[in-house]
Specification:
The chain is about 40% helix and about 20% strand. The chain contains eleven helices and nine strands. Strand 6 and strand 7 form a beta hairpin. Helix 1 packs parallel to helix 4.
Length: about 350
């Protein structure tokens, strides 16, 4: 390739004209490759040809080629900086915040009504000295039935009541009483605990029944604990939960394998407060829980001497309380995820 001074001058002029038309960094990179590309760069070819010149030509043409190289490098760098600044300015213009414009309201969520109820219930029991404990939802047959003195032939073990899992002896817990067994195995009395959580029953779903629901079970074990203590604790609990000191508690005889004696717990209807309405079926009372003195066999199953210690246990269905308290006529609404329903709470 034959080169001369005019060729170097032509490269500078042509590059200057092209640089003036460049509007993006992508186009600038293409221009850089046009002159400095290793294989086809115009200036690269000039610089490679210097070795074929005479010593006299190298002094003049070589100097001109070197100056052209410096010129192009400087021009390309300045153009790139100018493009970067233009892009930044354009970005800032697009992202400019108008501080005088009205703000966009951020939608706020809230806790599910059942979650609110559970939190309030736990706060009430904590204030009375109860510890809040939890346990697994997938439970063993021993903790869910055997240790709670539920006979092998009890109907609750059948498929119509229990979700059995594929693993032998495993099931979805039907009550949070299993948490009480786990706690008593690892703690020495006296103690008082509540165990809130989700339980599962294999039963038909309708307006008042779901395959899953929430329970809050309580346990208090000590030297001189009696049903009178249970009645007092539950009365304080419902009075505080429903913010009404007129709430009263009554016991009716019942049967549970894990308590003896056992009772059904009724409270003053917290819709009519004893005036007799449709919710309480004109009785003035609502059945809300089951309770009783912990069966001696249950205490023995966890290594506690029933001759020295005794206690009461109770289980409250939180879904039913939520339904009556909030006027919900279908339990399935609480699990459907319908925002039109949930936004009411």
């Amino acid at each position: 390739m034959h080169i001369d001074l005019k060729q170097c001058e032509h490269i500078q002029k042509e590059a200057a004209l092209e640089l003036a038309r460049i509007a993006s960094r992508e186009a600038l990179e293409q221009l850089r490759l046009k002159y400095f590309g290793r294989k086809e760069g115009a200036l690269t070819a000039v610089l490679r040809s210097l070795k074929d010149l005479s010593e006299e030509e190298k002094k003049t043409i070589g100097r001109a080629a070197h100056e052209t190289k410096l010129y192009l490098e400087d021009a390309l760098a300045k153009k790139e900086q100018a493009l970067i600044e233009a892009e930044l300015h354009d970005q800032q213009r697009k992202e400019k915040i108008d501080v005088t414009a009205p703000g966009t309201r951020v939608l706020e969520g809230h806790l599910h009504p059942l979650t609110q109820l559970i939190a309030k219930a736990c706060d009430i029991f904590t204030a009375m000295g109860f510890a809040v404990v939890e346990g697994p939802e997938a439970e063993t047959e021993r903790y869910n039935f055997d240790a709670l003195n539920v006979p092998k032939d009890h109907p609750a073990r059948d498929m119509q009541d229990t979700f059995w899992l594929e693993a032998p002896g495993m099931l979805l817990r039907t009550q949070t009483s299993s948490v009480q067994i786990r706690y008593m195995e690892t703690h020495q009395p006296p103690f008082r605990i509540v165990a809130p959580g989700r339980v599962f029953r294999n039963e038909a779903t309708d307006a008042t029944h779901e395959a899953q629901f929430y329970q809050l079970e309580g346990l208090m074990v000590g030297k001189d604990v009696s049903l009178a203590n249970a009645k007092a604790v539950l009365e304080v609990f419902f009075q505080r939960l429903l913010a009404n000191k007129k709430i009263a508690v009554r016991f009716r005889p019942s049967y549970f394998p894990f308590t003896e004696p056992s009772v059904e717990v009724d409270v003053t209807c917290f819709k009519c407060f004893g005036k007799k309405c449709a919710v309480c079926k004109r009785t003035g009372w609502l059945e809300v829980a089951g309770a009783g003195m912990v069966h001696p066999t249950v205490l023995a199953n966890v290594g506690i001497d029933a001759r020295e210690w005794q206690g009461f246990a109770f289980g409250v269905g939180l879904d039913r309380i939520a339904m009556v308290r909030y006027g919900i006529d279908d339990i399935r609404l609480m699990y459907g995820g319908d925002m039109r329903f949930l936004k009411q709470f």
